[in-house]
Design brief:
By secondary structure, this protein is α+β, with helices and mostly antiparallel strands. The protein has a single domain, classed as HIT-like (HIT family, subunit A), CATH 3.30.428. It is 40% helix and 25% strand. The chain contains five helices and seven strands. It has a five-stranded antiparallel sheet with strand order 3-4-5-7-6. A hairpin with a 5-residue loop joins strand 1 (3-6) and strand 2 (12-15). The longest helix is centred in the middle third of the chain and has 22 residues, at 70-91. The protein is globular. 20% of the residues are buried. The chain binds zinc ion.
Length: 166
């Protein structure tokens, strides 16, 4: 069973797996690649323009943490720590929420990094149940082209920093 999706150019595609199609460059969605390792990618979906709101995605089709191989566990741990360091260093993020959802409709294991920026903590308390509201708030208020361009150029800068941290 495939998925029908419309990409940013307005073209319609039929795909077995959206994540795999993005990675192979078959479709273009507003997703920015930050780093790629042997078994994982770190990406930002700029539909929700929050700096550092990144997702670590497995390349393999698996759902749960207990399906990871030993090698993947080591690679993932190293990647999570490296990403956390970057977020602390560049945005002074002192508080993060890491979310791992096992969803049957997404066939790639993934962990969300939700950074609690100071501007969020002025308005919200830093609780999990507030995240969806903040995502919608960001989409509504920060989706102008200037801000999206800012996020893209920041990612460009951090791509190098993340590589160097290795
Ligand atoms: Zn896939």
């Amino acid at each position: 069973m495939g998925n029908k999706i419309i990409d940013i150019k307005g073209e319609e595609h039929q795909t077995e797996c959206i994540a795999c199609s993005i990675r192979r460059g078959e479709i273009t969605l507003p997703v920015e690649r930050i780093i790629e390792t042997e078994n994982f990618v770190v990406e930002q979906d700029i539909e929700y323009p929050i700096e550092g709101f990144w997702v670590v995605v497995s390349k393999r089709h698996i759902h749960a943490i207990d399906e990871l191989s030993e090698k993947e566990v080591a690679e993932l741990t190293e990647l999570l720590i490296r990403t956390r360091k970057i977020l602390r260093k560049f945005w002074r993020i002192s508080r993060m929420s890491l979310i791992q959802e096992e969803r049957s409709e997404c066939s790639h294991f993934h962990i969300w990094f939700f950074p609690w920026h100071p501007w969020m903590l002025e308005k919200w308390k830093g609780k999990l149940n507030e995240i969806k509201e903040i995502m919608n708030y960001s989409k509504k208020n920060f989706s102008d082209s200037e801000n999206l361009e800012n996020i893209r150029s920041t990612i460009e800068r951090f791509r190098k920093e993340i590589e160097n941290l290795k």
